[in-house]
C-alpha cells in the first residue's frame, strides 16, 4: 500500500487488468445469509449500544456487506424512523468503538437518500462522525487506478448552474471536510495493509488529497466526464451522495467524510470494470474500519447530543451540539470579522407536483389565505378551488394551477419568496423543501 496525491506521478500498476486481484483468503466477505437473523428490540438497543461512535452509510448491497465484513459482534435492530440498523465493533483491546451501518437510497436528495438518511439517523444514533463508504469513479485515470481509495479532503458540487445565451455559468461550491477529520486523514493509512492474498499483485494507492465531485448523475460518458473536468479541473473523483452528506452534516454540526474505492473511470466503459466494484468497496471499508478503531484518538470527540432521553422510538430529537450561523438568502453573506461565508443554494428549476402535494398538506388549514399571496383573485378565482374535497386538495389545486400559469418562471426560488412571510408553514420545512444546500465555503 502506498500514498498518492493528484499532483504526484505514478507508474501504471496491475489495476489495468481485467479482473481484480484475489483478496486475503482469511478474510471472509459476508453474504446476506451470514447476517444476524434475530432483531434486537429497539429499547434494548438504546440501553446496550447507543450512542454509537461512528455511522457508516452505504448505497449498494456489496458496499453494505463490505463494511459489515470488518466488524465484530454483529447485531441488528429496527427503528420505525430508520428501518434496519446493523451494529458491530472495531478494536483489539477491551475498549472497542461501536459502529452502526445503514443503507440509503442513491443520491443526495429524494426519499431515503443521503440528506434524509443523515438527518434522521444522527439524532437517534448519536455518532461522533459519519462516513459514506463505497465506490466512485476516478477523474484522474493516469494517477488513480481501479481499486485505489479516495479520501475526501474537499467536496465540490456541480449541479447548480446558470444557462445563458453565452453558455453555462457555474454556481458550484467547494468545501473542506469537517475540522477534526481534516486533521485525522493526514495519517489515515498508518498501519493499514490492504487485505490481499498477494500484496505484490496490486499496489493499492490511497489519495488523501481527494476532491470529490458530487452530484445527481451517474456519469458513464467520456464526453460528459470531460465536460465536468473542464468545469471543475481540481476534481479527483466523482460520486453521488457526498453533496447530501455534507449538507445534512453541516446543518447538524457533526464530523463527516466520504471514503470510496475506484471502480471505473466514468468514460462510457463502466460495464467493463464491473468486476472491480466489490473489490474497490472492500478496500474503502477496510481502510475506514482500520482508521476508526483507535480509542485513544476518538475518546475526546463528542457524540452528537440527543435532547430526548425517552424510550419513545417515534421521538425525533433535533438538538445540535453547537449552533450554526445560517442564511435564508440564495446570495453569499460574509460573517463579520471572518473570510468564511454562509451560502444557501436554492434548488434549480420548478417544484415537482409531488413536492407541491407535500407542501399543500402544510398549508391546508390556511389555504384561503394563500390566494392573494399566490396571485389569485380572492373574490373570483378562489371559488374554483373550493370544489376540491379536503383542505389539502384545495391548497394543492391552487399550487398546481399557479405552476401551470407561471410556466418556466414557477421556480423554487420564486415560490419560496412568495411564501417567505406566510405564517402557515414553518421556516425549517420551507428550507427543506426549497434549498438544495446550505454550507460555509468558497466558490469555485
UniProtKB/TrEMBL annotation:
Residues 355-424 form the Death domain. Residues 305-314 have a biased composition (Acidic residues). GO terms for molecular function: adenosylhomocysteine nucleosidase activity; methylthioadenosine nucleosidase activity. Residues 1-19 have a biased composition (Polar residues). Residues 83-282 form the Nucleoside phosphorylase domain. Residues 1-24, 304-334 are annotated as: Disordered. One of its GO terms (biological process) is nucleoside metabolic process. Pfam families: Death, PNP_UDP_1. GO terms for cellular component: cytosol. It comes from the Eukaryota. SUPFAM superfamilies: DEATH domain, Purine and uridine phosphorylases. PANTHER family: 5'-METHYLTHIOADENOSINE/S-ADENOSYLHOMOCYSTEINE NUCLEOSIDASE (PTHR46832), 5'-METHYLTHIOADENOSINE_S-ADENOSYLHOMOCYSTEINE NUCLEOSIDASE (PTHR46832:SF1). This is Nucleoside phosphorylase domain-containing protein. It comes from Stylophora pistillata.
